[in-house]
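Good day; I would like, with your permission, to put a structural problem before you. What I wish to show you is a protein chain and, alongside it, a tokenised description of its three-dimensional fold. Thank you for your consideration; the sequence and its tokens are set out here:
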Amino acid sequence: MSLSVRILTLNGVLWDADAEELILPSSTGLLGILPGHAALLTSLDIGVVRIKSNKDPVAIVVIEGFAEVRKGEVIIVSNTAEDRRAHV
């Protein structure tokens, strides 16, 4: 079982793939999302979205935004986000 994760910015889609686990920098603290998570809408703070997939873990920096979780799908909308893999 997996989550469909999409990260959208003003410049387009930054990430669109499946994941096993997701950690979000919500405005109230870190929030872990696993498959089967209850529906949720949360604001995001400045921080790192950590994505665990079948491949290497991914860290994407977001500068505030929102995340919606529903039926195995997570959609993150942020004004600015940057995939940190290119800088490791």
User: Anything to note?
Assistant: Residues 3 and 35 are 6 Å apart (CA to CA). Strands lie at 3-9, 12-19, 21-26, 29-33, 40-44, 47-52, 58-62, 65-70, 73-77, 81-83. The chain has a mean pLDDT of 91. The first strand starts at residue 3 and ends at 9.
